[in-house]
Each structure stands twice: as C-alpha cells, then as structure tokens.
Amino acid sequence: MTEMMDAIVMGGGPGGATAGLMLARAGWRVAVIEKARFPRRKVCGEYLSSTNFPLLRRLGVAEEFLKRAGPPVQQTALFARDTVVTAPLPRTKEMPDGWGRAVGREVLDTLLLERAAQAGAQVRQPWAATKVEKRGDMFLCEATSKETRQTERLCAPTVIGAHGSWEPGTLPTQPARRPARASDLLGFKAHFCDCSLPNGVMPLLIFPGGYGGMAQTNDGRVVVSYCIRRDELERARRAVPGRSAAEAVSSRVRESCRGAREALARARQDGPWLSVGPIRPGVRAWFSDGIFYVGNAAAEAHPIIGEGISMAMQSAWLLCEGLFARGRGSWPGDTLGEIGREYARAWRKSFLPRLRAAEVFAQLAMRPIPVALLVPLFRSFPPLVTLMARWSGKARQVVPSGKGVPRSIDRRTDQPDA
For 25-36, how does the pLDDT look when each residue is reduced to its tens digit (9 = 90+)? Predict the structure, then answer.
C-alpha cells in the first residue's frame, strides 16, 4: 500500500520541523521522516537570535521557548590569546527590547516536532528513508522503522530535504561522500555547570587552527562548542598523547585563550563530549529536480557566526510561504521550477551576506598572522565586535514581525501565541 501525501519532509530538526508544522497548519497532508528518537543531543552552539521571535510566535512556541531557554544574551565578546573584549549585541528595529537566547537541541527539536505532530503532521520517528525516486510528477519514498523494521511507502508531489549536511548517503537529498582533507572542520560540544562566564555574555573563542563559542543555555548550564581543522586536531592530539580528540582540543583552547581558561577554571562537565564532522560550509542547492532544500541541506555557514538554527528555521519559512502562494496540489515541472527560483532568490537575499561574512571571519580566525594583527585593533575599538555580530545576521529580520495571522497558519483553529 502507498499512502498519498502533499509533501514529505526528510529530517525533523529545526528546519524540517518548522516546515512540517507550517504545512500541517495550512491543511497539507505532510509526513516528517526523522532518523533519531527525540529528545537527543546534537553538536550545536544552541543560540537563537531575537530575529527568530516573530517566527516562534507564528509557530505557537514562543512562550514555551522563553520558559525553557537560558537567560537573555545581551553582549558578545572576543576571547583571543590574552585579550578579552566585550561589546553589546546589535538589536533589531522591529524588536528593540528583544535579546537572543540559547536552548539545548534536545529541548528545541523536541518542542518543534511535537507541535508539528499536534498540528497534524505524520511524524515517523525513528525512521530512515531507504529510497526516494521520482515517477512522473510524483516522488515515491520508502521508509523503514529503525525499531520495528516496519516499512511504508509514501507518495507526494513535493519533497523537502531538511536532514542537514553532515551525513552523506545515496538518497538524492543527501550529499555524496568526499575524501578527508587536512582543511576539514571537525566540531565538538559539551555542557558545563558552575562556569564563571559573565551573565548575558556570548563570547567568540579564537585559538590556533580553530574557533569556538560559549553561551548560557537552559538548566543553568553553559554550552561550549569548538571547530578545528583536521590537521590542527592531529597536532593537538600529539601534544597531549593518550587523551581523546575532544580533550585535546579543550586543552589547546584553555592553554591559548585566557577568557576560556578563566570561565572554565572551576566548571564541571555535564555529560560527555559530542563530535561531528567534517563540517563543509558553502552553498549546495535550493532546488533540484523537484526537491526543495532548507537549513544546512541548502547551504551551511561557518559556525563562527552562530546562525545555523536561525537559517534553518527561517529558510523553511521562506520556502513554505512560496509554496502556499501557489496553493496545494501537484504542480507541473515549470511551476516547480518557478517556485524553486523564487525561493532561491529569497534565500540569497536573506542569507548570502551572512554566509560570506562567516567565510571571511572563519578564515581570518584560523590563521595566526591575521589574528596577531587584528586582536589589538579589536582591543582598541570594541565596537568592531558589535559590527561583526551585525554582519553575521544578528539583526537581520527575515520573518516579518506583524501581528496579523499569516496565510501559512490561518486555515487551522490551533493559532499561534498572541
């Protein structure tokens, strides 16, 4: 038996869950296929800027998000070598009193996917898509439960790739495998309690061969995340033989970055380190052969700007608004291509500047000579740190903050927060 759907979403993270929730509230028959059982931890900086609040309100999760998230993040900082520079974060014109927050992915992802299911999305979890192929104007998807081995066949005119970019595979929505390179970025994350990080400050950490960040997240913890080049990771491991990769990176950060060393001096780790990689930032595709992409499946910015969750959720909103403008149904190839081109234009306008800024920031941060030249400049002119945060998209409004109910959620009685 094959079940007919209006859309199939591959991945239940922030981008996929946002798309599933919006489509379900608009009356679409939508299935979300997620390989993991939530709640689950994930390598991520966990920060959402205040530019997300209009979307969170439209999705009906703003109140719960604010209840569960960490304290308001009002300042950014630069921790590099012996330098500690603090500066205010930029604020949006639409929300001058709003500040970003951090919350664990085990909280955020579960909240969004549960709301999607409550709105009517058919959530398959933990399930894995084993085949996706196009037959005429429709896509046939075969998926298997990872717990019971039950198999289902779904058919839909629209497929949305929202599975991120770190796991390659053979499906048309997945990236191909690539050989390891010395320049590959590898990511690490852990939570800590009893940190000495000043309240409301989210620093950028600069260390040889990499960069990282810290933020006060939910349950009184601080999330610490690092990205380091593969070749520099090998050097770090040789410097501390017998330690794990994460411990080697952490040791390098503490030795080379005074701000991180002081913040973590009396901290105790809460849970194990997580790792992921390689992280390969860049543009992939917004639309290809009838498949739309959101989040990291579409394009990935260097994590140095801390905008991954924002870009995932906001790109899903851009895509869904474009789909809703055409109405529900099976569209001919020309119409699909037109929707894809419009979505690509909207995506580039909204996110390409921060993608480019992230590339520049990351390349400068991972090279010793630019760091040596620029750190004294930031120390002398702290407003430059605020300017970097603005260039990274911290005040870039993508989803309008109007109070009216958008067309994407006006077909259901389950309305968003006021």
Answer: 999 999 999 999
Distance between CA atoms of 1 and 154, rounded to whole angstroms?
A: 9
Q: Which two tokens stand for residue 252?
A: 């390098």
| Of 47, 10, 224, 17, the residue nearest 109 (C-alpha) | 17
Express each pLDDT in 38-56 by its tens digit.
Answer: 999 999 999 999 999 999 9
2-177+281-400 belongs to CATH 3.50.50.60: yes
Which among 295, 291, 9, 292 has a CA at the least distance from the CA of 143? 9
| Residues 288, 173: Cα–Cα separation, whole Å | 9
Confidence bin at 79 (pLDDT 50/70/90): very high
Which residue in the block uniquely carries the two structure tokens 């900086």?
Answer: 45
Three-state DSSP class for 285?
Answer: coil
Residue with tokens 């501390």: 240
pLDDT at 302 over 70: yes
Half-sphere exposure of 137 (CA within 13 A, CB side): 10
Q: Is residue 319 within 8 Å of 26, Cβ to Cβ?
A: no
